[in-house]
Amino acid sequence: MEIGIDSFAAASAKAGGTAADSMQAIDELIERIVFADKAGLDVFGIGEHHRREFLDAAPTVLLAAAAAKTNRIRLTSAVTVLSAADPVRVFQNFATLDLISKGRIEMVVGRGSFTEAFPLFGLKLEDYDELFTEKLDLLLKIRANETVNWSGRFRPALHNQAIYPRPLQNPLPVWIGVGGTPASFVRAGTLGLPLMVAIIGGETHRFRPLVDLYRAAGKKAGHSPEQLTVGLHSLGYVANTTEEAVDDYYPGYAETFTRIGKERGWPPVTRSHFNAQTGMFGALLVGGPEEVAEKIKRHSEALGGISRLTFQMDNAGLSHKKLVQSIGLIGSKVMPFVNG
Fold it and tell me: In this predicted model, what pLDDT tens digit does every residue of 76-110 receive, in sequence order?
């Protein structure tokens, strides 16, 4: 199983953080990616948001900086909000990244879990699914063909248009990022694309019927089981002991998800809720190395086997030092436990 990190490039936790604080946060993020490369992790992903608390509005720029300073780790988006982007520019950016990285770039494309990108780029939220369907179709056509003929509703048509540069990898890896919408799982399976499932709460095993839908749709469309790979994006944090991990992670987690909950109508986070999420069946991967490794194995079994697991851990206000320590433990202890 490949194991790595996804980051949303959290901004400084300081009230009224300055541009200098943002500069430091980005510098530390690149340091963590370089450290993850040296620590033996398989993949590092950068999200895309257009909110004050995140610095990942231009993820390909961050990935380019990381690509120039790393040697072996695969670099990916997590996710590219394709509904709000031009697929031509998305492909060109990632093809260029693939050349910079010498063939280590992937992209996970999705519709996004926040909605700020739609008004920002002059799009209608009611076109949420239609935008993604059409733009994914164009992106895959560009990936497969140097010269493209295409027409759609949301973008000017392309007539015998050659699109450059071409990536080193052929094809450039494209994953579909999904939450809990059945149609999204079916679409990924029908297209034969690898699936990245974001499970940030609840009980992981409850997603098994959706993963089965994905595999059934892929089989029906004629894709081999080996092509229908499943990855899991989970909130998590590893410390030397479970007690240390919980003490470090809980305060920032509770603050972040209580704040987001006010926007979405969720109840405030309580310690009992958190304890349920870090328990045997809950989605959070927070604990000591051996406990987290065992939980990753249970998650994989519950979903019928996963090929990739990414931790999202910079959403709890943890210091750069704590995050680096956690990455080191994942590389030195969690990965050997999982794959040994």
Answer: 999 999 999 999 999 999 999 999 999 999 999 99
Question: Cα separations (Å) of 60 from 55, 193, 222, 262, 312?
Answer: 12, 21, 33, 30, 18
Cβ neighbours, 10 Å, residue 314: 25
Domain hosting residue 232, numbered range:
2-339
| Domain total in the chain | 1
Q: What's at 317, amino acid-wise?
A: G
Residues 6+ apart with CB under 8 A from 247: none
Between CA 196 and CA 71 the distance in angstroms is 24
- The DSSP-derived string for 239-260 is -SSHHHHHHHHHHHHHHHHHHH
Evaluate whether 10 touches 42 at the Cβ level (below 8 Å).
no
Tokens of residue 239, six digits? 């410390």
pTM of the entire predicted model: 0.96
CATH of the domain at 120: 3.20.20.30
Residues 180 and 22: their CA atoms lie apart, in Å, by 33
Phi, psi of 284 (to 5 degrees): -75, 135
Residues contacting residue 177 through CB under 8 Å, at least 6 positions apart: 78, 79, 108, 109, 110, 196, 198, 233
325 neighbors 237 (Cβ within 8 angstroms): no
Q: Please, where are the H alpha helices in the chain?
A: 19-38, 59-69, 87-100, 117-120, 128-144, 182-191, 208-220, 242-264, 271-277, 289-302, 320-329, 335-339
